[in-house]
Specification:
The chain is mostly helical. It contains three helices and no strands.
């Protein structure tokens, strides 16, 4: 019974069974006749029964501490999980902002590059216009 539930109610059920066992062992003494094993049965099982009584209360206190520690650990894991979720969310937002800035810079660089290429092309045409006109006139 105590293995299924570790509480005072389960311990009371075990103590009731132990009391009944003691009473039964005491009743066997007058009925045992010359059987030495039965006459000493109550004395032989008493240390074990006392140990069971003592250790059941110890087991209950251990189970109570275990439950408390389990609840504390559960809260700690939940807190850590929440913190991790916040960190991931912050990292995602930061990554999104950096990605948007990068895209904006890339677009700006492409526009500036295109404008510079057009200006360079116009300058090349102006530079080559004079010599081309002389070549054309010479022909």
């Amino acid at each position: 019974e105590l293995n299924r539930r570790v509480d005072a109610e389960a311990r009371d059920a075990v103590l009731t069974d132990l009391k009944a066992l003691r009473e039964s062992a005491a009743k066997l003494v007058p009925l045992s006749g010359r059987n030495a094993a039965l006459q000493d049965l109550a004395k032989k099982i008493e240390p074990s029964l006392s140990a069971i009584e003592k250790h059941t209360s110890l087991l209950i206190s251990i189970a109570d501490r275990w439950r408390g520690n389990k609840e504390a650990a559960t809260e700690l894991v939940a807190s850590a999980s929440h913190t991790l979720e916040q960190f991931v969310s912050t990292a995602q937002e930061s990554g999104k902002e950096i990605s948007q800035r990068s895209a904006t810079m890339s677009l700006s660089a492409m526009i500036v590059g295109t404008v510079l290429a057009i200006i360079g092309g116009l300058m090349l045409i102006e530079t080559l216009r004079g010599p081309l006109m002389r070549i054309t006139q010479t022909m």
